[in-house]
Amino acid sequence: MTVRAEAAGPWLVGDVGGTNARFALVEAPGAAPERVRVLPTRDFTGLGEAAAAYLAEETARPAAACLAVAGPVGGGRYHLTNADWRPGEVADVRDRLGLAAVEVVNDFAALAASLPLLGPDDLRPVGGAAPAPDGTAPLAVLGPGTGMGVAGLVPVPGGGWIPTPGEGGHVDAPAATDEEVEVVRLLRAECGAASAEMLLSGDGLARLHRLLGTVRGTPAEPLTAAQIVAGRDDPLCADAVAVFCALLGSFAGNAALTLGARGGVYLGGGILPRIADALEAGDFRARFEAKPLVEDYLRAIPTALVVHPYPALLGAAAHLARTHPVRGAAAPTLENA
Fold first, then answer.
1. pTM for the full model?
2. How far apart, in whole angstroms, are the C-alpha atoms of residue 210 and residue 10?
3. Is pLDDT of 1 > 50?
4. Radius of gyration over alpha carbons of the chain, in Å?
5. Which helix H or strand E contains 229, and what residues bound it?
6. Burial 150-165 (b: 16+ CB within 10 A, else e)
């Protein structure tokens, strides 16, 4: 990737998921995102239109932009997986915005890039101390929202980090108990597949609640994820959240083993901050560690919930600090593949 020097000016950063599109301006490398606005993704037909709507309300003209999207990115194309948008071309976004430098990255690549920038107040430990990246071991980040995102962050010899995004949310659902196995069996019969994202996401929590009722012989009225989280005085809602956290623990342990994330596993996404109490009090951490022969390996890996409101915007700015440095600015430490 060619690194170019850019004239001074604010950067446009974005974090676009299936539900919300978040945009902000960053005045200088290392500065916090400002003028954050959250727009409904469904109100737009593409990334360029959404970003242009944000800029229409701002007077500053960005020098460069980095837009993170919830889906695969490569070859100059992007696809927002959980939205009714057609796959798009980065060049079209660049033309729509009228900017010379526009990059599109995976949202969890951006979230991974933010991890070394987070402070103690941005993290809530789950099952012990919070991770403290020292540049010697890989990190992992995952999180349920509209979908399920997963990425790694690998240290570079001599300093810096490389985000490694993937589509790990589409691996098989990590059922462990007899009841979970039966839920997965019903899910597979119903949908023809049983991916982790189909249970570990907003729609997944609603699906899990419904299928748990079926397995237990107590069918329940359909509820949204928000209704389930708010209605935990109901036993089935409380159990759905508990099983959700347990499944997430197994999934996070799998990710830690696959990525070799000895430096820590971070939990993001829009759902978990609303159920942080259940995450800490339930079986998340026990299921994270419950892998025969490698319990000690996993027991040494810290896990934490990211509570910073806009971490992917931080990561998008960190990406630009590497690929489009401002003249005279200190060399950034983040790298991106």
1. 0.89
2. 47
3. no
4. 20
5. helix 225-230
6. bbbbbbeeeebbbbbb
